[in-house]
Q: What sequence folds into this?
């Protein structure tokens, strides 16, 4: 059985998903592909073109190993907990998604594996339920306390249209990318690992802020709620970012529907500044790449993904993404020669013909 799933770029709405807010991801052209063959026992043997062969594990006796196969074992563990019967299998994985760049390579693997298992073992699962199994894999097995966005985007988003998701209700709405712009994604070359480090620190700070304010999730509040100012530092800054960021997502979706690419670019810029100063999730290197994208002609730019390294998403005038990306990366490499920066996505869409 063969199955696949896309990566995702979050256009705007960072760290709002696990706070019950809005997000606006789009699927990447890159993705993950799996081939799965049921075995006659309960052993799972997995190999990846990128990561090599993983230690075998037994369905029903999964335990985290700290390797890439945890995303496979986590899926069998989560699906069993959801009441599905599985046997062992052989798995081959290939992907052109860069690991650690903020494009949700782990979610793409989880969703692709879930789809293949659905076919191989005749499971009654839709893509939303597969996304939930992927979220459980991240939070309960791997140990990354993420929200539902990545797996929903990997399973349901398109490459030519963003997907507005309310992470509290999981209500979704497609939002077309305006014709007057195109998306540019740049890899800073600065790898990150969300399973250890600042990501979980930020989530814990958000939970503490919500508890102090007496709400279930921070996005129960608006950015002008006077209670935010009473929080101690740095909880006040975290809450201010999250509540304003969710509103920026709504404004971005409206700008896209109106075709107002300049307003959309301004929202990108404001989002990055908030992530840099209030949520403190950026790095000097990522800040530099964001600035270079703007200097080279982008209408707006921001870090995308959990932060602390990874990728930048920029909004380019239609037909100019490739040019802007090449210039920004060349200048960045001169400043940071030890980092392997590159253009990840620059659609080859021609600029509109003059009338």
A:
């Amino acid at each position: 059985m063969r199955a696949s799933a896309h990566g995702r770029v979050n256009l705007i709405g960072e760290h709002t998903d696990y706070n019950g807010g809005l997000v606006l991801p789009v699927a990447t052209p890159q993705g993950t592909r799996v081939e799965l063959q049921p075995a006659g026992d309960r052993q799972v043997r997995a190999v990846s073109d990128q990561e090599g062969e993983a230690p075998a594990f037994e369905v029903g006796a999964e335990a985290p190993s700290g390797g890439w196969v945890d995303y496979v074992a986590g899926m069998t563990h989560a699906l069993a907990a959801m009441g599905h019967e599985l046997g062992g299998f052989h798995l081959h994985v290939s992907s052109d998604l860069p690991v650690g760049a903020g494009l949700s390579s782990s979610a793409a693997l989880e969703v692709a594996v879930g789809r293949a298992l659905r076919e191989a073992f005749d499971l009654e699962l839709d893509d939303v339920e597969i996304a939930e199994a992927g979220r459980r894999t991240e939070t309960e097995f791997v140990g990354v306390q993420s929200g539902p966005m990545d797996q929903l985007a990997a399973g349901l988003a398109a490459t030519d249209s963003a997907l507005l998701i309310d992470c509290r209700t999981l209500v979704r709405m497609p939002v077309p990318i305006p014709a007057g712009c195109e998306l540019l994604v740049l890899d800073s070359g600065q790898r990150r690992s969300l399973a250890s480090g600042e990501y979980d620190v930020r989530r814990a700070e958000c939970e503490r802020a919500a508890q102090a304010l007496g709400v279930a999730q921070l996005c129960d509040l608006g950015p002008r709620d006077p209670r935010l100012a009473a929080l101690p530092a740095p909880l006040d800054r975290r809450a201010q970012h999250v509540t304003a960021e969710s509103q920026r997502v709504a404004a971005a979706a409206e700008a896209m529907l109106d075709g107002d690419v300049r307003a959309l670019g301004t929202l990108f810029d404001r989002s990055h500044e908030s992530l840099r100063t209030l949520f403190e999730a950026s790095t000097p290197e990522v800040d530099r790449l964001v600035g270079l994208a703007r200097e080279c002609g982008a209408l707006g730019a921001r870090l995308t993904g959990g932060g602390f390294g990874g990728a930048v998403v920029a909004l380019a005038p239609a037909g100019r993404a490739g040019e802007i990306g090449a210039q920004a990366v060349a200048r960045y490499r001169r400043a940071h020669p030890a980092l392997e920066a590159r253009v990840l996505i620059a659609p080859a869409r021609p600029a509109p013909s003059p009338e």
Summary: The CA atoms of residues 172 and 210 lie 25 Å apart. The longest helix spans residues 235-258.
